Structures are given as structure tokens and as C-alpha cells.
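Hey L., structure's done. Input below.
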Amino acid sequence: MNKIYFMLTSNSGVGSTTIFATRARRNIDDLLAFFSQYYDVSANYTKDKDMIDLLVLPEPFGPFNNERNLPVIQIPTILFLERDFEKIKTHIDAYLAKK
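Output:
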């Protein structure tokens, strides 16, 4: 099973920001709880970076260093903000079906 990393936080060097304006931790925890039913997921890049197989990236998103040149699934940010996990899952499933 692929380990999927949800890139929801960006580190600008000055500080980190998340796509969730409020209740970021709860939103991330809810997202991980939903997707962990279907995939091996992570939102902790530092801890899991050597085990990640696939990046899920809200689009648009700031620049990042894809140091392992991992495949990236770009998903509209609005789906994360609206917490539309089913539509996000549809994007991920479509990508995985092509592989």
C-alpha cells in the first residue's frame, strides 16, 4: 500500500502556515481519520519522509522541495477548505487507478 502524505503545511523559513485558517489541528486530524480508512496516510513529513510514496498537494500551493522526486497529485484547495473528503478521495482513487 502506498504511503500518502498530505502537504497541508508550508514552511517559509520564517514560520509555517497551514491551508486551514482556523482549527488547523482539528481539520488535519479529521482529514487523516477519514483517509486512514482507505490508505496509509501522513501529515508529518519530518517523521515519515523516508516512507512516503505519493504527495497530495492542494493547488495552488507555495513552492516546496520535492527532494525524493515523488509523484504529486494536485487537488483544488477549495476541496480541503470545504472538507469535501469524498471528492478528494475521488481524485486520489482516479490517480491510483491509472498506475
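Helices lie at 24-35, 45-48, 77-81, 85-98. The first helix runs from residue 24 to 35.

-- N.
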